[in-house]
Amino acid sequence: MTTFKEQEKAGWTEKADAYDTAFASITRQAIEPILGAAGSLEGKRLLDICCGPGDLAAAASDRGATVTGVDFSPTMVGIAAARAPSADIRMGDAEALTLPDDSFDIAVSAFGLWHLADADGALREAARVLTPGGHFLYTTWLPPDEGWEMFAMLMAAIKRHGRLDVPLPPAPPPFRFAEEATARAALHDAGFTAIAFDRAVALHEPANGQEFIDLIYKSTVRAAMLIELQAPAARKAITEELRAGAEAKRENGRITIRWPYLLGSARAI
């Protein structure tokens, strides 16, 4: 069996285009909160860790930052390089950055920690490449009991019709960096201080229930595989429940699904 890290890299290499046209409409909603929390970017050196399709890198460049973006997916790097032509977009491993110590004023990771096998290593790397006092910001999805409706709907449908113990490689705890006490301890251990958190909500507004299912299938990796690896009858029942669940959220002709997230902020020691 492949490792979690190998699976994530292969999945995002395959699904980069679909992510860019669908899922990124959700994650783009965090760009303004992240960059707003970063303050003035004029003349600052900013590292975008797990830069994905480059939306944040492009926005930071437009605000006057000198931007370096790193991602492990070659297709994501290609999209990001085209979207943020003034940034230095490169292949790289967030857990082992090939960048000098003390070389950035700001480092950000928009929903990147979720996809890393060794997020603690990535935090240490972020602290290493930041100047003393340099600002680190990250976002991560909040758990279903704090309002993440997509994940709650998916888990409920799988538990009702299928099984969670499908043959996937072991993954790190998904909400570790969404729990403030745990995240604070990890950031402190990695070399950060002045740790603070805020919460915000992104919204997904699919046209219909099928578009909601398409988002999961076409532009997520592990969530899609949780469905794909079910027995055929279970897979059919799960997708039917997800479709109906999305439609049940329609009000005044519009479906709205909440994607709440945590915004973490810290300073390198």
In words, what does this structure look like?
The protein has 269 residues and is an alpha/beta fold. It has a domain of 187 residues: Vaccinia Virus protein VP39 (Rossmann fold, 3-Layer(aba) Sandwich). The protein has ten helices and nine strands. The protein has a seven-stranded mixed beta sheet with strand order 3-2-1-4-5-9-6, with helices on both faces. It has a two-stranded antiparallel sheet with strand order 7-8. The longest helix has 24 residues.
Features:
269 residues, 7-stranded mixed beta sheet, alpha/beta, 10 helices, methyltransferase, Rossmann fold, two-stranded antiparallel ribbon, 9 strands, globular, 44% helix, 23% strand
CATH topology of the domain at 4-146 and 170-203 and 259-268: Rossmann fold
What portion of the residues fall into strands of 2 or more residues? Answer: 15-25%
Specify the structural class.
Answer: alpha/beta
Portion of residues in helices?
40-55%
Number of DSSP helical runs:
10
Gyration radius, in Å:
18 Å
Show unreliable segments. Answer: none
First and last CA, distance: 39 Å
Overall pLDDT, averaged?
Answer: 97
What's the overall geometry?
Answer: globular
Biggest sheet strand order reads: 3-2-1-4-5-9-6
Layout of helices and strands:
Elements: H1 4-27, H2 31-38, E1 45-49, H3 55-62, E2 66-71, H4 74-83, E3 88-91, E4 104-110, H5 119-129, E5 130-141, H6 149-161, H7 180-190, E6 192-204, H8 209-219, H9 222-228, H10 232-247, E7 250-251, E8 254-255, E9 257-268
Parallel strand pairs: 1-2, 1-4, 2-3, 4-5
Antiparallel strand pairs: 5-9, 6-9, 7-8
Helix pairs in contact: 1-4, 5-7, 6-10, 8-9, 8-10
